[in-house]
């Protein structure tokens, strides 16, 4: 089989067969197909798309490109949670510990940032000493003992996805239904959990711009999960403005701690409790999702969820003192403020543009080999619906390089709109697919 022929067929809109899809996945994983040819293939898929059968096959072969984790040594129903990516989305750092406090074993493998979205592994990397590379038996032992462990995707779990994931990030081929589905589900199916909760974002800061696109993605992923014997649910949540107030790795860890203390922004607190509650339901710790959500809120209020976060940090070599003293997290060397230029109500804080602005500060990658500035990012002082007076601080921008911050500031100017009239916010959770 010839790589150029497969690229040409997909470029011209043909449906690829199982042999062709497996050839591309296995060839790239083995290093026989170079980056430039896989980039061309991904771009062809991006523009021509894949049908459902092609997507199922791509997921299957990406999963089979490496090992499948055996989590049978962990007691109870293991529940994994995954977000399709957003701006300011630090829900794993909150929902994971809250679900663990409800008695759900949380054995999670997470990824790094992709495009303008942040990655859980990058966020955890902001905690001094925190280790995301953990041996499999230690991972299992930690979940049994502490109830939760969050580690990086190893090279043995869906290695095809690990390579393709990094390439998509820098070739503008991120937001494609088939590529997102195969990336998410190949890892989730190989990671060994018994149940999967998917948080599918929709809006201008998501890969799926409309609720219809998000629903199509959610239903396809749920279908693939159930076909492989996994209890699978999906939540469609809004991403038309950043989630919470913090965008950037150390800033988001700090905000997650505040939420676990019961003091965080309303939107991230609400969504995290909802996700934790649905994890409790999937883990059969609650009879209904609503009962699970009430349980998760209680575990956050009584400090149990924060203790699970502390247990995870300490068990994985991190400095638990950050919970009492967040100044121990990486601190930025420079900052700029973005001020309201007139009185009014915040009509829009465009999530994608804010995500790109955060990327420009150094908080995200523009090339797959880029180093992240863990202290960089944006902190919002106002959200959609808030009233401002001229000169009020809408947000502050943090980083090392003042020129990068100035570039980010220009992006933010285009992201924020102020209206003379009151503005209503979008509902946070649009739909739950069971």
Task: List strands and helices in order, with pairings.
Blueprint: H1 3-11, H2 18-30, H3 35-48, H4 52-63, E1 79-83, H5 92-101, E2 106-110, H6 120-124, H7 136-146, E3 148-152, H8 159-169, H9 177-190, E4 195-202, H10 211-227, E5 231-238, E6 246-247, H11 249-260, H12 266-282, H13 289-301, H14 304-315, E7 334-339, E8 344-349, H15 351-363, E9 377-380, E10 387-388, E11 393-399, H16 402-415, E12 416-419, E13 429-433
Parallel strand pairs: 1-4, 2-3, 4-5
Antiparallel strand pairs: 5-13, 6-9, 7-11, 8-10, 8-12, 9-11
Helix pairs in contact: 1-3, 2-4, 2-8, 4-9, 5-12, 5-13, 5-14, 9-10, 12-13, 15-16
Report what the structure shows:
By secondary structure, the protein is of the alpha/beta class. The protein has three domains: 3-49, Transferase, Pyrimidine Nucleoside Phosphorylase, Chain C (Transferase, Pyrimidine Nucleoside Phosphorylase, Chain A, domain 3), CATH 1.20.970.10; 79-323, 3-Layer(aba) Sandwich (Pyrimidine Nucleoside Phosphorylase, Chain A, domain 2), CATH 3.40.1030.10; 331-419, Aldehyde Oxidoreductase, domain 3 (Alpha-Beta Complex). The chain has helices at residues 3-11, 18-30, 35-48, 52-63, 92-101, 120-124, 136-146, 159-169, 177-190, 211-227, 249-260, 266-282, 289-301, 304-315, 351-363, 402-415, and strands at 79-83, 106-110, 148-152, 195-202, 231-238, 246-247, 334-339, 344-349, 377-380, 387-388, 393-399, 416-419, 429-433. A four-stranded mixed beta sheet has the order 1-4-5-13, with helices on both faces. Strands 6-9-11-7 form a four-stranded antiparallel beta sheet, sandwiched between helices. α10 links the parallel β4 and β5. α5 (92-101) crosses α14 (304-315) and α9 (177-190) packs parallel to α10. The relative contact order is 0.14. The mean pLDDT is 94.
């Amino acid at each position: 089989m010839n790589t150029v022929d497969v690229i040409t067929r997909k470029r011209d809109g043909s449906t690829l067969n199982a042999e062709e899809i497996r050839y591309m996945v296995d060839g790239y994983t083995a290093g026989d197909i170079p980056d430039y040819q896989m980039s061309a293939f991904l771009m062809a898929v991006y523009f021509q798309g894949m049908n459902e059968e092609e997507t199922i096959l791509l997921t299957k072969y990406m999963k089979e490109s490496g090992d499948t984790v055996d989590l049978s040594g962990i007691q109870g129903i293991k529940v994994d949670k995954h977000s399709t990516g957003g701006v300011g989305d630090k829900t794993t750092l909150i929902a994971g510990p809250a679900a663990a406090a409800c008695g759900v074993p949380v054995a999670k493998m997470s990824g790094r940032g992709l495009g303008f979205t942040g990655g859980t592994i990058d966020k955890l990397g902001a905690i001094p000493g925190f280790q995301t590379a953990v041996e499999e038996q230690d991972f299992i032992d930690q979940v049994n003992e502490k109830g939760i462990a969050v580690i990086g995707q190893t090279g043995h779990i869906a290695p095809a996805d690990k390579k393709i994931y990094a390439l998509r990030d820098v070739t503008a081929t991120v937001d494609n239904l088939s590529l997102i589905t195969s990336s998410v589900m190949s890892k989730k199916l190989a990671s060994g959990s018994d149940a999967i909760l998917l948080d599918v974002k929709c809006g201008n800061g998501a890969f799926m711009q409309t609720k219809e696109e998000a629903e199509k993605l959610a239903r396809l992923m749920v279908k693939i999960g159930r076909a492989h014997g996994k209890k699978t649910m999906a939540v469609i949540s809004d991403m038309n403005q950043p989630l919470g107030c913090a965008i950037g790795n150390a800033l988001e860890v700090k905000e997650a701690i505040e939420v676990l203390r019961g003091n965080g922004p309303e939107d991230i607190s609400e969504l995290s409790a909802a996700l934790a509650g649905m994890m409790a339901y999937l883990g059969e710790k609650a009879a209904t999702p609503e009962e699970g959500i009430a349980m998760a809120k209680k575990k956050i209020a009584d400090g149990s969820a924060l203790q699970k976060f502390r247990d995870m940090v300490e068990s994985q070599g991190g400095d638990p003192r950050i919970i009492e003293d967040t100044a121990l997290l990486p601190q930025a060397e420079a900052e700029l403020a973005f001020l309201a230029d007139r009185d009014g109500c915040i009509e829009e804080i465009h999530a994608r543009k804010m995500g790109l602005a955060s990327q420009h500060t150094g908080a995200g990658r523009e090339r797959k080999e880029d180093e992240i500035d863990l202290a960089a990012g944006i902190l919002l002082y106002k959200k959609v619906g808030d009233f401002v007076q001229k000169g009020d601080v809408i947000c502050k921008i943090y980083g090392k390089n003042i020129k990068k911050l100035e570039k980010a500031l220009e992006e933010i100017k285009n992201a924020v709109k102020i209206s003379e009239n009151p503005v209503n916010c979008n509902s946070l959770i649009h739909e739950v697919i069971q």
